[in-house]
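Running this now, will post back.
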Amino acid sequence: MLPKKKRLTTGLFDQVFKVGKVLHGHNFWIRSFSLLESLPSRYAVAIPKKIAKTAVLRNRIKRIVYTAIETLDKGGVFSNQTNHMTIFGVKTDVSKISYEEVVKEVKDLLEKRAKMR
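Update: finished.
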């Protein structure tokens, strides 16, 4: 799980949803924008009930995605990207695909986000 300082607050979540730019992948979409202040990047995961009916499954998917983000963050893949507020939306049930595929798609979307600036 991501540390609290790396997760979006409710206020920032609403702000990102209103003004963030959207990128799409096969299993995810991301909505992201940059702040002018120098803050560490923050992330959130949104899973609609249409994708995962039960809270147990939604929480499992959140853990998978948060772990992928944390793995990439500790690996230094996007450590130079600061000030980004990002929401990951899930399009399909990613608990049925391999963890490596999830990490690869998360990495690809974050690289696209860096080029989007």
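The mean pLDDT is 87. More later if anyone needs it.
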